[in-house]
Every structure is written in structure tokens, then in C-alpha cells.
Amino acid sequence: MAECLTVTREIGRFESERELRRQICKTGRKMYAYGFVVACEGNISVRLDRDRILVTPAGKGKGHLAPQDLVVTDSSGVVLCGTGQPSTELLMHLLYYRLRPDVRAVCHAHPPTATGFAAAGRALEEAVLPEVIIGLGKIPLAPYGTPGTWELCAGLETLATKYDAILLENHVVTCGQDLTTAYQRLETVEQFARILLTAESLGGPHLLSHAEVRKLIAARSRYGVSSPDAGVELPPTSESLDDRVDSNPRRFLERHCRETSRR
Prior knowledge:
alpha+beta, 9 helices, 13% strand, 8 strands, L-fuculose-1-phosphate Aldolase
């Protein structure tokens, strides 16, 4: 009887891993089709269990992956299964899994508009879209670090415990309780960046007020989103903009010109 249960568990684990391999390949094709990655950019991983990570290999285009291309590592990055080498950004993925027991998938890509904001040194944190505030709170910017090194992880570490989507100076990384959620957050980040860029070309976005943001944060549980930790900062609101404008004559002039152009 015990042997039968062991065999059943092993079969179940094999089927689960096979499905996750298919999901990673499908997600890679989406990332490539939508221009979030080109050539061999980007990487995807899922947590198989407490001690094993399934990750995309180094040097393979995400739009053309096959399930057998993927690599299984332990929680230290040692390869357990697979003929290739794991992604050079594996350290970043392992950081998330170490810091966030709730995270079971990580996506790293270069969606062009969001990455443009990161390259310009700008976070995506203004209180503009209710959906973004409810789902992500805000999207901070982590300092630049050399790709594939602990230097990059050091800049990410203080933010990874609090935020599910982060701009790194010149990348975007998202996480989730499953691969679908992690990927959808990547889409959300890029869509927000496009909308914000368009709004700025039309004179600048209208920010929501502090009270409106508080209402949206309070509504998170209704949408199945966990509330942020106490240390999480709220997005800059219309009041925050007023404070910055009042203390900076140049910002006051810029805002006056925008408001005049709208009339």
C-alpha cells in the first residue's frame, strides 16, 4: 500500500512538472509575440516544490522553447535536471523564492515602454489607474546592477518583499502565486507605461487623490488581492504633486502651462 501511494505521488509530481513546462513555453511565446523580449532576452521560472526550481535555459529564444529545453535547479542554483545551463539571471529568481514563500513564478522581460521608463530613471508609481493601484499598488524603480550578479539582487532585495512588479534600471520583473498571474502583471506594467506616456504627451495625467487611493487599497480584498505590508508606500497622489509643485517654482510653471493648454 505504501509503495502504491509513493508511485501515485511520483506520477502526480511528474504530470504537474510536465504541465508547468508547457506553461513556461507558452508564456515565452507570448512574451516574444508581444515584443516583451527579442533574441535570447528574458527568463521565466516556477517553483516546483520547496527545493526545486524550473527555469528557462541560457542562450535560448523565449519564443521557440520546447519543454525539454527547460532546466531544474535546487534552491542554490545547482542543476538537477537538464542538458543546458540555467538562465544567467537565476540569482534574481532565487532571491524571490527565498524572500517570498507566496511566490511560485517569476517573469523577467524588457517590454519596451516600461523599460524605457526604467532606462530614463523613472518609476511607474503615480496614482493614475485604479486597476494598477488595486493590483500592484505602485511599481518602484530598483537601482542598476550588473545583470546576473548579486549586485543586481542587492538593489532588488528591499523592494522584492513588498512589491509584485518592479522596474530595474533597464529591465522589468514580476512575480505571482502562479505563472499566469506573474505574466499578467508583466502585461499590466507595459500597458500602464503606454498609457502614462500617452497622457504625458497630452499635458500630463490627472492623479487620483489620497482619499481615492485609500478607498482602492481598502477594496483589494474584494478582488482577491492581499493588502500591502505596513512598510509599503502608497502611490504619489494629487496632493503629493501639489506639495512638489509648491516647493519648486519650475514645476509650478510647468503645471501652469499644462493646465492652460487644456483650457
